[in-house]
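Entry 14: structure prediction run for Cytochrome bc1 complex cytochrome c subunit. Input pasted below.
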Amino acid sequence: MHALATKRYHKAAPFLLVMLLLALITGIGAIATSQTAEATTASSSDLEAGQKLFSSNCATCHGIDAQGQDGVAPSLVGVGAAAVDFQVGTGRMPMQASGPQAPAKPVAFSATEISQLAAYVASLGSGPSIPTAEEVDPSLGDPAKGMELFRTNCAMCHGSVGGGGALTEGKFAPSLMKTTPTHIFEAMLTGPQSMPVFNNANITPEDKRDIIAYLVAQRDGSPGGLSLGAIGPVAEGWWAWIVGIGLLIGSTIWIGARSS
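Run finished. Output tokens:
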């Protein structure tokens, strides 16, 4: 048996095997370290630029350390990059004046600056990240399933097709007809203004994409003809009823006048 083992295994085999494993581990570690160093350099540059942008544009309200100020602006620690990308990317921030809520307006920063601001705020505390292109691609979603989810969770404020609606105390649910898929996803994820937070435990990323697919599908004209502003079946039905009854009454009066 000993002779057979000697023939099958060379004495130097274990040593060579250990050396080979050490070389492999060292090589992988060197590559990972190099990649980490490059990422850290890029990230540090973005963080520095983002901090400067924050100090000159946001610190007045949110505080130099982003901890917020009572009665002025909330803390941004832990809100994540998605919240910044939504608020700044839709022009809601920086806010021009106090009000019940911040309306969307022309964007004040470039895409690069928004990314840098988001990176800086995200470094202050963990929070939702910006969704990937695949997560918000409406072509990968199911509009029929999205319709069910939207009408269960969103239609009571935004209307049956996302046309928007009024809330209380001067607040409102904005129209979603021109909102980008990324910003729709981020709004569900972060719950801006009066909107509740629909995290991935409440509505999965796949369900969010289905909702986006449904909303985008509503932008392709009106399958039923005249949309009447796409304000919803109840309001549109009431308008049709008023017009129909009005025409009947008008016709009756006209016929009666002609007969007499």
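Notes: The chain is about 55% helix and 0% strand. Will compare against the previous run tomorrow.
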